[in-house]
């Protein structure tokens, strides 16, 4: 591939990267809106003691074992 061909491909790669970032931003926004509407924030505030942290993980069911191992030392887990 000639260097001039790379110049034509680069804008397409940048456009694809922007599209991926936009889609990811949309999904994060959708999750955040659902989080507020479903009351997850209030439930976590009630469940977590002061000065503690929580993890919300959204994953495919096939990744359950990986997530379970990653959270092996968690004091409490809640799966929905």
DSSP summary, beta strand count: 0
N/C terminus separation? 50 Å
Quickly count the helices. Answer: 3
Mean pLDDT: 76
Structural Rg: 20 Å
Basic shape: extended
Q: What portion of residues belong to β-strands?
A: under 5%
Describe the oligomeric state of these chains in a short phrase.
single chain
Structural class: mainly alpha
Q: Which percent bin holds the helix content? A: 55-70%
Q: What low-confidence regions span 5 or more consecutive residues with pLDDT below 50? A: none
SSE string:
HHH
Number of domains: 2
Task: Tell me the major beta sheet.
Answer: none
At a glance:
With 80 residues, the protein is mostly helical.
Structure explained in plain terms:
The protein has 80 residues and is mainly alpha-helical. The protein has two domains: 1-38; 50-80, no CATH class. 64% of the residues lie in helices and 0% in strands. It has helices at residues 3-38, 40-47, 64-70.
């Amino acid at each position: 591939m000639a260097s001039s061909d790379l110049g034509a491909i680069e804008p397409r790669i940048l456009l694809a990267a922007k599209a991926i970032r936009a889609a990811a931003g949309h999904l994060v926004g959708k999750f955040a809106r659902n989080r507020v509407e479903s009351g997850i924030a209030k439930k976590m505030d009630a469940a977590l003691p002061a000065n503690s942290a929580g993890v919300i993980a959204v994953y495919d069911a096939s990744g359950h074992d990986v997530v379970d191992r990653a959270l092996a030392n968690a004091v409490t887990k809640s799966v929905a």
